[in-house]
Amino acid sequence: MTDSTPTEKYSPLHQIHVDAGASFTDFAGWQMPVRYSSDLAEHHAVRTVAGLFDLSHMAEIIVTGPGAAAALDYALAGKISAIGVGQAKYSLLLTPDGGIVDDVVVYRTHPERFAVVANASNRFPAAAALAARASGFDATVVDESDEIALIAVQGPQALAIVESLTRVDGGLVLPVAPGDLKYYWSTLGSYLGEEAMVGRTGYTGEDGFEIYVSNDRAARLWNDLVAAGTDRGLVPAGLASRDTLRLEAGMPLYGHELSLHTFPVQAGLGRVVNLKKEGNFVGRAAVEAGPPEGARMLVGLRAEGKRAGRADYLVYSGDTEVGVITSGALSPTLGYPIAMAYVDPGVTEPGTPLFIDVRGTRIPATVVPLPFYKREAK
Amino acid sequence: MADHDSLSFTAEHEWVRVDGDIATVGITAYAAEKLGDVVFVELPAVGSPVASGTVVGEIESTKSVGELFAPVNGTVTETNDAVVASPELVNSDPFGEGWLIKVAFTELPTLLTRAEYTALVGE
Asked: Any chain A CB within 8 A of the CB of B36?
């Protein structure tokens, strides 16, 4: 190879985004829409009506075989064998030292078939770790990311929009009505005669669905959802709004809140690690021993005014540096600055007054519980 | 519609409108588009001296933070209170109502023409 320029990857929906006037950003080598018109408008649309996201850059790693469930119990932090067909589970791929290779969602599509959805930035490490960890089991690991597109519909109107595609001639045929799907459950059906998986999952803090189809069905599905949703207020939404939505919902983003050197308990994800499950799993001994004494813990910070702390800004208690921000923004829904930060164990209690160094100015902030935003229960 | 050909530009994606010894300064539509929705603008105090090429203010979007550079040496004579109250003006009308500061200058440095700026951003 003489050309060292990294290859840019494009979603099967790329031309649709270009035609819609999207601005693009590089995300893990993918050229993905960062916004179509306005980050804020797209954010508010998801909170109040619905937004449509192209997440085709996400990785889908399929694990099949009689030993698939046991392999995933060993490979991941949760008890994957305990979930039923149709159920989904948020889990972690740990390092032997208790750090995090990736955070994933596992869907059990069949008794002996699981789809592990990983972050685009961690596709290859996640696929390699799963393959290596499954090698002692009667299971096969195949990275199908290049063949599968993912479109998410998120927001209060998401159900009505997805439902309309399941009507006669809507193209989407599901064994379970979308409205009967519980949160973190999925169903396997078809769209225009090809397999489609619909999960009641998402990364925005709103009700919503994620629809997995083959690349060659993606453009038609996107256009059908736009046609079904536009009158209800559905707008295409980019990664900028996805980031502020997930931040308000207190959801971690790999590379910000999660890393190879972060223990789950530090990120508030201790509950995701099932230490009661029988048998060994990668990272178990390290997680049982716990992080080193004094390890920083993830907290929410709320500030006054309009200036937001951003990733890598330092956090102070008085004049003492006690932490660092991992994500932050002026919350579009709440109207005040919010941030997630890793801070020393002595200053994690909600109500603790701290300061954020915003480019040389110390802004007062208060530790608050996560999430910052929770949708009202219906 | 402003006549953008009469404006000067900087490599920091700012535009400058010269009227006598007063330079009106804002950021370009290209810069506003790259920032995304502007949610906070901090401008220097009226009367403060500014030095060309130094940071005198901030333009924050939901995604990121942009710096406002003084394009000339001089003294701030006016700031746009409307844009402080409604930062979205930077996005909706960057060359008009989204102007940021006015500076009384003594000498005008060499700035970019519109054609030069357009070539710079490749649009």
From this structure: yes
Please check whether residue A226 is in contact with residue A236, taking contact to mean a CB–CB distance below 8 angstroms: yes
Q: Is residue A269 part of a domain?
A: no
Question: Quick one: A29 and A113 in the same domain?
Answer: no
A243 CB-side CA count, 13 A: 25
Low-confidence ranges of chain A (pLDDT < 50): 1-4
What pLDDT is attached to residue B123? 64
Q: What is the ipTM of this complex?
A: 0.85
Instruction: Show the domain range for A65.
Output: 59-143
Q: Are A369 and A339 in contact (CB under 8 A)?
A: no
Minimal CA–CA distance to A327: which of A259, A238, A265, A260? A259
What 3-state DSSP class applies to A352?
Answer: coil
Length of chain B: 123
Considering the domain boundaries, does residue A303 fall inside one?
yes
Same domain, A305 and A349: yes
* Structural domains in chain A (count): 3
Ligand-binding site membership of A163 (annotated): no
From A121, A143, A165, the end of a domain falls on A143
CA distance A341 to B120: 38
pLDDT tens-digit map of A222-233: 999 999 999 999
B37 touches chain A (CB under 8 A): yes
Q: Give the residue-averaged pLDDT of B79-91.
A: 97
Q: Is residue A2 part of a domain?
A: no
The closest alpha carbon to A301, from A332, A269, A335, A337, belongs to A337
Distance CA A172, CA A191 (A): 4
Query: Which of A192, A188, A211, A216 lies closest to A201 in space, CA to CA?
Result: A211
- B60 contacts A240? CB cut-off 8 A: no
pTM of the model: 0.94
> Among B63, B84, B88, B90, which would you mutate to test the A interface (most chain A Cβ atoms within 10 Å of its Cβ)?
B63
